[in-house]
Amino acid sequence: MKIYTRTGDDGSTGLLGPGRVSKASARVEAYGSVDELNAVLGAVSTLDGERWLQPDLGAIQSQLFNVGAELATPATEMRDRLERVGEREIAELERWIDRLDQDLPRLTNFILPGGTALASALHLARTVCRRAERRLVALGESEMVGSDLIRYLNRLGDLLFVLARWCNQRSGVRETEWISGAG
Asked: The domain spanning residue 98 has which CATH number?
């Protein structure tokens, strides 16, 4: 099987199911942003030399494939046959956030993204996650998007922020607080 098909040379792409859409469509933007997030999490995983985030990070990457597949499937009858993220996965993210957050100092100011390479990559993943979330919300303004997908990405963005803080603390790296008017 060849990797290139030439069918997208006209600026269109196929979805799961019949038909083609513009590569600039809101649906493609949404699942493309989820795919980008998954790739960034792959890079995060390579920086996790101590394996602090495994196997949970791998599970999240698999869940993001489910999110992408759901977004790439506009036909309800096909979408209903897919493995989908839902309340169980959202609750897992919340438990992970709560478990890590109890070991972190209380936030009194905004913090600047940074710290260790791993924490910095997690902050980058957080921003890509927030963009993917915005793309889902935008898609939802014109087409049906499951509310669990938006909730999942919202909670995942929270988790990535907490993970960045937790990794910095575990590495002994202090967070840099944002000071208004500095710089």
From this structure: 1.20.1200.10
- Residue range 38-93, pLDDT digits in tens: 999 999 999 999 999 999 999 999 999 999 999 988 876 776 778 889 999 999 99
Secondary structure of the chain in HEC code, one letter for each residue: CCCCCCCCCCCEEECCCCCEEECCCHHHHHHHHHHHHHHHHHHHHHHCCCCCCCCHHHHHHHHHHHHHHHHCCCCHHHHCCCCCCCHHHHHHHHHHHHHHHCCCCCCCCCEECCCCHHHHHHHHHHHHHHHHHHHHHHHHCCCCCCHHHHHHHHHHHHHHHHHHHHHHHHHCCCCEECCCCCC
Residue 52, classified by CB atoms within 10 Å of its CB into exposed (0-12), middle (13-18) or buried (19+), is middle
13 sits in which H/E element: strand 12-14
- The pTM for the full model equals 0.93
**Structural domain includes residue 183:** no
Domain that holds residue 158: 22-174
